[in-house]
């Protein structure tokens, strides 16, 4: 690609590497908002050249000149998955965007509706540079820390673009990345653990499904040299029970990052509390209720994302993530000065729907098995899954760690306690069955095991 050798482009990369990665520590709130205003104006102007956006903005009577900054963002219409899918491919990029110089990326389709978008080389570099910021936040560095990432490198994934097609090969010409090791998640788990054991990473990144498999091997005595300072989780929500299970196996804390194929990296978890720092130069996040109005601080809302950089398919006021979280109005003591977000509560369509119309987020339910295990300080449940078959029927599947089957309270007793605690949350009118299984079926790759599945469609519901 010619831009790899364009002095202007190289200058942008150098600026990001030496300056932008640190701005979450150096900019104050006013400076950051001014910077975001500039980025938003630029991306809206760009979106106006994209057919899908141009038509939608004209329909709503919006022109880029109407958007002066973040304060005007709600003037813009929401963009849905259908908007992207119905206008693919030519309607989601400008007429002058060269597909040969860009990258086509697709979501996993975990919602049943995969979405494809185009990105550019700079976006790929920004995604990799995100790790530079995260490493600094967690006390590491490119030069001194050994980083291992177990990720999906199949064609069409963001990881494939970043690590094999563009950013990593490019940056290796200028930056020493010998301490970075990336492993394809489709390898056998035993082989992955052996590679990690040989590499001895200081930081280990992967998705929740892979972490659970590696934790199981760790508990079986494998990977004695795999002793990372932090585990960095991404790609899916890690419920509290499995978080505890993995952290105990590795004797290391899990730190979450949150991003999506459409938006790129968005947040990373603070080292001092459970909150998440929003990357202000990458994305602006809104949190909306069922009426598409902003929720109050501390209240759970649907995440709406605006990507503030890159070419290809613009992502502005995108409501297609289907994720739930709460905005937080606090100042963080860790030194990172950004918008704060609460824990990801799960996806809206995975929420349990009650007969009175209320919805229970996945996180409000997945804490129950952990609380019971914490009570006994015995993590006998290796894996579980909550399935709402009907409005009044919930099944909980559990996989038992055979090493601990006959230790502590019986499986029957644990099942009874799980059933009792669930009844307190969902109500006595809901039939609850706790069934032991040998394994829980993956939805595709290792990171696609859903912890909560609801087969009940919500109407206008209130989120608890």
Structural class: alpha/beta
**Unreliable residue runs:** none
Query: Strand order across the biggest sheet?
Result: 4-3-5-6-7-8-9-14-13
Give the CATH topology of the largest domain. Rossmann fold
Largest sheet: 9 strands, mixed
Structural domain tally: 2
Fraction of residues in H or I helices: 25-40%
Please tally the β strands and state the result. 21
Describe this structure in words.
The chain starts with 6 loop residues before the first helix and ends in a 10-residue tail after the last strand. The protein has a 9-stranded mixed sheet, with helices on both faces. The chain is α/β, with parallel strands linked by helices and 464 residues long. It has 2 domains: 1-344, ANL, N-terminal domain (Rossmann fold, 3-Layer(aba) Sandwich); 349-454, ANL, C-terminal domain (GMP Synthetase, Chain A, domain 3), CATH 3.30.300. A hairpin with a 6-residue loop joins strand 8 and strand 9 (276-278). It is 31% helix and 21% strand. The chain is globular. The mean pLDDT is 86. It is built from 13 helices and 21 strands. It has helices at residues 7-18, 23-26, 29-47, 51-59, 81-86, 121-137, 158-165, 167-171, 189-199, 208-219, 240-250, 362-376, 411-426, and strands at residues 103-106, 116-119, 147-151, 180-184, 203-206, 230-233, 253-260, 264-269, 276-278, 283-288, 301-307, 323-325, 327-328, 340-341, 346-347, 352-353, 359-360, 381-390, 393-400, 431-436, 452-454. The longest helix has 19 residues, at 29-47.
């Amino acid at each position: 690609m010619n831009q790899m050798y364009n002095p202007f482009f190289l200058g942008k990369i150098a600026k990001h590497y030496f300056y932008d990665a640190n701005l979450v520590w150096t900019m104050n709130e006013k400076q950051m908002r001014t910077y975001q205003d500039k980025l938003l104006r630029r991306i809206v102007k760009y979106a106006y050249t994209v057919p899908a956006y141009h038509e939608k903005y004209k329909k709503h009577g919006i022109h880029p000149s109407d958007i002066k900054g973040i304060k005007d963002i709600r003037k813009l219409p929401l963009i849905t998955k259908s908007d992207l899918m119905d206008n693919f491919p030519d309607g989601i990029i400008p007429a002058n965007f060269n597909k040969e110089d860009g990258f086509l990326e697709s979501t996993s389709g975990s919602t049943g509706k995969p979405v494809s978008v185009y990105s550019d080389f700079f976006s790929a570099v920004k995604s990799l540079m995100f790790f530079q910021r995260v490493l600094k936040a967690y006390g590491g560095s490119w030069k001194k820390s050994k980083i291992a990432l177990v990720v999906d490198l199949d064609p069409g994934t963001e990881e494939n673009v970043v690590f094999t097609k563009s950013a990593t090969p490019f940056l290796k010409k200028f930056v020493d990345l010998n301490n970075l090791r990336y492993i394809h998640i489709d390898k056998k788990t035993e082989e992955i653990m052996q590679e990690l054991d040989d590499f001895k990473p200081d930081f280990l990144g992967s998705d929740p499904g892979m972490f659970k498999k590696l934790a199981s091997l760790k508990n079986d005595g494998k990977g004695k040299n795999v002793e990372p300072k932090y585990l960095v989780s991404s790609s899916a929500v890690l419920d509290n029970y499995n978080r505890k299970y993995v952290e105990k196996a590795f004797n290391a804390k899990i730190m979450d990052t949150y991003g999506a194929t459409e938006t790129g990296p968005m947040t990373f978890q603070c080292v001092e509390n459970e909150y998440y720092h929003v990357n202000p130069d990458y994305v602006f996040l809104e949190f909306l209720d069922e009426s598409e109005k902003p929720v109050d601080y501390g209240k759970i809302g649907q995440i709406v994302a605006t990507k503030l950089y890159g070419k290809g398919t613009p992502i502005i006021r995108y409501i297609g993530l289907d994720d739930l979280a709460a905005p937080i109005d606090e100042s963080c003591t860790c030194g990172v000065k950004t918008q704060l977000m609460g824990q990801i509560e799960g996806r809206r369509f995975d929420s349990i729907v009650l007969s009175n119309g209320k919805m229970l987020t996945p996180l409000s339910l997945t804490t129950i098995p952990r609380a019971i295990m914490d009570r006994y300080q015995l993590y006998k449940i290796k894996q579980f899954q909550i399935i709402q078959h009907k409005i009044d029927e919930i099944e909980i599947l559990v996989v038992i760690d055979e090493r601990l089957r006959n230790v502590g309270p019986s499986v029957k007793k644990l099942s009874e306690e799980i059933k009792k605690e669930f009844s307190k949350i969902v109500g006595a009118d809901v039939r609850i069955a706790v069934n032991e299984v040998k394994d829980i079926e993956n939805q595709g790759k290792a990171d696609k095991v859903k912890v909560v599945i609801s087969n009940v469609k919500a109407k206008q519901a209130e989120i608890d």
